[in-house]
Design goal:
Length: about 270
């Protein structure tokens, strides 16, 4: 129920969708003779569009999250395992065009393979099923396996978890497969902006995890009033940031994390 509800709510809350919905309703009101209400709604949509086009609001919001966790330095001498979250490739395109066809989030794969070589005795886990309401049976893990093998990783070392649909299920379902103990030490790989939510969820689920953030999309030094002008760039960055901040909020409110913005140990 949580998964389905989150998909529906995000469809309604996605800034790009809200922009189009507001414009559409505003135009309909104008055609219906409701000039004041129509002009107000169209003006509101235009103002929001201009704000995200001119100011790097999304990048600033994302940078806060990307700066939250850093890769430990120095790295531990020994770890129990390495887990990488899905979202690496689009399995629906892969199903139609071949496993190597979709654009691949190489940062997660390359770090997974690099760390697997650095820790040859570590357990390895890839966790990712289908986050789609319409195509729940096409699992990302099934397409990740041949790609990892083609990149030289011994997939006999890897446990593939293919039933999870979101970050919470990544943690719960993977835990059921590998049964980590509180004394185990795992490295968690995901996108830097997603790392706070992932760390919070995995900790709450009983994992002892260290962060390995990858795929940064900001410098971390963006300033709100550093002018830009690109609606496409602005709305994409803003949508990504809103999605992650809403995810953090809902996970905290529903008890999937114990704090709104998880932080490194000792800084909560």
């Amino acid at each position: 129920m949580f998964f389905t509800l989150s998909k529906i709510l995000w469809f309604l809350a996605d800034p790009g969708n809200l922009f189009i919905i507001a414009l559409s309703i505003g135009v309909l009101l104008l055609w219906a003779g409701k000039g004041r209400a129509g002009r107000g709604l169209v003006s509101l949509a235009l103002m929001g569009g201009l704000l995200v086009a001119v100011f790097p609001i999304g990048k600033v919001m994302t940078g806060v999250l990307e700066n939250r966790f850093q890769t430990p330095d120095p790295k531990p001498d020994k770890i129990t395992g390495i887990i990488v979250l899905g979202g690496v490739l689009n399995q629906f395109i892969a199903k139609k065009r071949g496993a190597s066809a979709p654009r691949i989030a190489t940062g997660r794969f390359s770090e997974f393979i690099r760390l697997a070589g650095l820790y040859p005795d570590a357990k390895l886990v890839f966790t990712g099923g289908s986050g789609s309401l319409s195509n729940p049976d096409i699992k990302e893990a099934e397409f990740a396996a041949p790609l990892l093998e083609s990149w030289g990783l011994d997939i006999g070392r890897v446990t593939f978890e293919a039933d999870s649909r979101n970050t919470f299920e990544n943690a719960i379902f993977s835990k059921a497969l590998v049964k980590p103990s509180p004394d185990d030490k795992w490295i968690l790989i995901t996108s830097a902006f997603h790392m706070p939510r992932a760390m919070g969820v995995f900790r709450a689920a009983g994992w002892n995890v260290l962060p390995a953030p990858v795929e940064y999309v900001t410098t971390g030094e963006e300033r709100l009033f550093a002018l830009q002008f690109s609606f496409r760039t602005g709305i994409n960055a803003f949508s990504r940031a809103v999605h992650e901040w809403l995810g953090l909020s809902f996970y905290w409110l529903t008890g999937r994390t114990d704090t709104l913005i998880p932080a490194p140990a000792g800084q909560d």
